[in-house]
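New here. Your pick:
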Amino acid sequence: MGTTVWAVLAGTALLAAGLVLAVRRAHRAADRPVPRIDRGRTYTATVRGIRPPDDGGGTGLVLVEYEDADGERRRAGLADMIHDSWLDRFHEGSAWQVYAYTPPGPRVVLAFVHDEVWRCGWNLDGVRIGAESGPLEPGPGSPFRR
């Protein structure tokens, strides 16, 4: 066999081994529990915009900014996917009470004082694994356990 064939075989073997390791790492991450929501303190978060969904359909990600307990400004997305019937209330500059995860991450959740807000799904991308979201039957109340 020529050198080119051996190089192709070696490259294929390395690619396959890398793929196996990536799948194992993702599977282990999915087995980790979701971090705890710190419900001992609410933060006032200001809406900074809405990022459209990647697939072009459904509700976008509401982006907020808040000041954490250490006085640090943080940007995060709402883990609550807001139903279209409520989305106009989440205009830029509007303020909402949120809970943060411990440790703080890329998502926050609406505080229970906003249980009247209709949600249609949840998005925890980056909280535990790279992409983690899902639909809910539209309705009021938090999809996150109390």
Remarks:
- The chain has two domains: 1-31, 36-140.
